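Please review the protein record below. Let me know how this chain folds according to its tokens.
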Amino acid sequence: MPKPPIHQRLAEAAVALFDENGYDATTVDDIAARAGVSRSTFFRYYRSKEDAIFPDHDALLSRIGARLRASTADTAIVAITDAVRLVLTHYVEDAEVSLRRYQLVRQVPALRDREIASVARYQRLFREFVGEWLGDAPDAGLRAELMAASVVSAHNQVLRGWLRAGGTYDPADPLDHALGYVIATFRHLDQPQEKSEQVVVAAFSRSASPQAVMAAIQQHLESSV
């Protein structure tokens, strides 16, 4: 059988060595040797050993960006949910590495920081797309931030549940369920309601004359201006 691509071999070697020997005790040379390549080859693919733990984020971000750019204003919400599914599918398709990486990230602060930075890149991509979609709409910046944060939070909640369960189930339905809440939020924010006119309710005794009623209403309206 053909060997996996070099970037994948390096990632698998890094995960295995971090798991076996610990993050601090593993060097770039160790990873390169396990993958059967030279040190210089390692640096053609990754800038550091922690980057090897997150091997495909740049490519995945490009795929997400392409999916978002292919949409129109009418299909923006569909594009966003499709993009979220792309991210989850990426983890599920390489479940063994994803599960081992999850354990490592929980133990190594440097890897947690790297993961946080990666999540921020995804959220920024969604925020920029939603901001362009909303254009000059009221509170566009705030709404774009809220939408992007809700998308990322929904995905991460489902992904963490799947990882904690050891990848023992298909997370597609839980993701669709979570995205249902996100879509509802999007629909609510898509067309912000204009501020409604204030409704005044007044009560009068049966004996009040029409003139007295009208005078009281007129006085209230004038005092509210």
Summary: The first helix runs from residue 6 to 21. The chain is about 70% helix and 0% strand. Residues 191-196 have pLDDT under 50 and may be disordered. The radius of gyration is 27 Å.
